[in-house]
């Protein structure tokens, strides 16, 4: 029995030694784990501070972005309005140009009509100076007088008034077109 006791004692001591070694290893890892947890706790405080700073920065960025959107929206609206107004002015200018061309054509037609009536009235008045009772200076030099006889002037007066009426009508059309643009 003494041999069994001894084996039991040696085995008990061996288990105790193995248990002490395992407890030593557990204590070593416990200390190491405690250091890591302490590092995490201190890092957590820093992380919370970083998260708070990040949240503030995000809030400021969102605010700045909102302000930027409002400013860009206002600028975009102003640009759109200016663009629409420019388009309207362009359309108005095109209308004025077309209307001006029509009025210019009417004026030109009126002027030509006035010149033709004046020329027709003056055609009969061109006569040699020798045939007239009083020769002019051009007749004395051997030329023709281009002045109209008093009878021709009376005939030409209504034609001139027609040309004046045509010009007045063209002017009134131009003024009306300009007033319509306002």
From TrEMBL:
Key word Iron present: no
Region annotation Disordered: where it falls in the sequence: 122-182
Basic and acidic residues bias (residue ranges): 170-182
A Pfam family annotated for this UniProt entry: DUF6468
Transmembrane regions listed in the UniProt entry: 6-31
Alphabetic keyword roster: Membrane, Transmembrane, Transmembrane helix
InterPro entries with a match to the protein in the record: DUF6468
Domain DUF6468: 40-113
UniProt keyword Transmembrane helix present: yes
Protein name, entry field: DUF6468 domain-containing protein
